Amino acid sequence: MTTAPTRPRGASTTRTAGGVAERLLRNPTLGPLAALVLAIVVFSVTTDTFLTLDNVSLVVQQSLIVATLALGQTLIILTAGIDLANASIMVLGTLVFAKMAQQGTSPLLAMLIGAVVCTGLGAVSGALVTRLKLPPFIVTLGMLTIVTALGRLYSEGNSWPVTSDLLGFLGSGSYLFGYFYVTPGMLLMVVMFVLTWYALAHTAWGKHVYAVGNDPEAARLTGIHVDRTVFSVYVVAGIIYAIAAWQALGRIPNADPNAFQTGNLDSITAVVIGGTSLFGGRGGVWGTVVGAFIVAVLRSGLTQAGIDSLYQDVATGILVIAAVTLDQWARRRSL
Predict the structure, then answer these.
(1) Which of 70, 292, 305, 306 is the most exposed place for a label (fewest CB within 10 A)?
(2) What pLDDT, on a 0 to 100 scale, did the predictor assign at position 1?
């Protein structure tokens, strides 16, 4: 009489865990998307006002600035870098926009000059990383301090109100079908994410970004100009930060040198929660959108539930640690 082979204890669990890791690696947006849906369901059940159209529109508007900053941050993190200065670059952009416009410069020219400033600062970071081979963390930490000081010096420590309709244009809007408030800033964010997704998924440049993030030496051996790719990413991110400055003046019509002090951390949070690996080469812009919405939904829902803002920060921190832990676990399972 023959006996059926026994299944090793724990084999089913191992295969299940391996399958989960494989699915997470193939599509890292799935986990964050499930978390977003769960958060929406929980807050819809526990509060009376969360799922109203007005509140949904408000949540989307509140996520615009962080999502735009996080878009540039995503590109840099995909190359295994990081940008701690993105919010301070954006704030300096708002100051250039508003101060120059108030002093008589054409608003369009003020925006162009501010965009050049933001792009130039991104280029400086990229040059220091690629030419001097300095760690991105150190470079952008130094840039954070420098640009923050420059913003306060340029603004003379004062806030500068928006005096031009063009500067505040992205925050103006109207109700769609009389219910859902839509702003040009929302539409611009959609266009930016679609264009960036296309560039990453369907151009040689995007493939080079992922290749450099996965293994820069292997990318170099295949003929990719690693330094040129990394430098271009910081330049593109600088352009995105300039657009974020325009978004910021649409949301808050006042350029303040002390604003958005946690914007850099919020953008990193959105990217990491959205499934992009801090070690580069894995993730994408749609996960970043989900991550930005998770942060906005969490803050809105907990506020409406009467939870203190400090506990909101605790919950956000736990999510970041959980996201990085999941990324590490999935990578180890794939080896």
Answers:
(1) 306
(2) 47
